[in-house]
C-alpha cells in the first residue's frame, strides 16, 4: 500500500481545509496540485480563496492531467508531500475535454473516457510510488445526493464514484469530512 491519504466529503464539508492542515502539520515541503480551471466569476472567487488559504512557501502547480511529467519539474526531488485538490474537478475537466456529446454518445465511448481518466490517475500514483512521496488527495463524495436528471450528470457521478472507490482501495488512510469534522474510515 502506497503512502496515499484520501479525503472525501460533501461540498463545503471542510475536506480541503483538513487536507491543507494535514500537509502543513507534516512540516515537510509541499507541492500543491490545483485541478480547477478558472471558467467563470464564481470559480475565480473560489480559486482566489483557496490561494489565500495556502502557505506562501508551497509550490503550486495548476494541472489536471499528464501527471507523469511532474517528476521532471525543477525541484521535484525536494517536495515530500503532494496535495492534489481535487479529484472530482479533474474528472469533470477530463470528461468535458473529451469532446463527447454526452446526450448521444454510446457507453463504449464513455468507458474509453473512464479508462483514460484512470490512466491519468495511475500516472500520478506511479510517480508518487516511484519517488517515495506522500500523496494527499481531496475528492467529493458524489453518491449521497440526488440522482442527476441529465445524462452527463449520471455519467460524471458514476465515473467519479468508481474513481473514488479505486483510490480508497489504494490509500493507506481515508477520511470522511462532515461539517468540518474529519472521521477516519480507513
Automatic annotation (TrEMBL):
Pathway connected to this protein: Cofactor biosynthesis; adenosylcobalamin biosynthesis; adenosylcobalamin from cob(II)yrinate a,c-diamide: step 5/7; Cofactor biosynthesis; adenosylcobalamin biosynthesis; adenosylcobalamin from cob(II)yrinate a,c-diamide: step 6/7
Highest taxon of source: Bacteria
Catalytic site positions: 50
UniProt entry tagged with the keyword GTP-binding: yes
Record-level GO BP terms: cobalamin biosynthetic process
GO MF annotation list: adenosylcobinamide kinase activity; ATP binding; cobinamide phosphate guanylyltransferase activity; GTP binding
Keywords annotated in UniProt: ATP-binding, Cobalamin biosynthesis, GTP-binding, Kinase, Nucleotide-binding, Nucleotidyltransferase, Transferase
Catalytic activity as recorded in UniProt: adenosylcob(III)inamide + ATP = adenosylcob(III)inamide phosphate + ADP + H(+); adenosylcob(III)inamide phosphate + GTP + H(+) = adenosylcob(III)inamide-GDP + diphosphate; adenosylcob(III)inamide + GTP = adenosylcob(III)inamide phosphate + GDP + H(+)
Range of residues in the leader sequence: none
Family as reported in the entry's similarity comment: Belongs to the CobU/CobP family.
Protein role: Catalyzes ATP-dependent phosphorylation of adenosylcobinamide and addition of GMP to adenosylcobinamide phosphate.
Family annotation (PANTHER family): BIFUNCTIONAL ADENOSYLCOBALAMIN BIOSYNTHESIS PROTEIN COBU (PTHR34848:SF1), PTHR34848
Protein name: Adenosylcobinamide kinase
Higher taxonomy: Bacteria, Bacillati, Bacillota, Tissierellia, Tissierellales
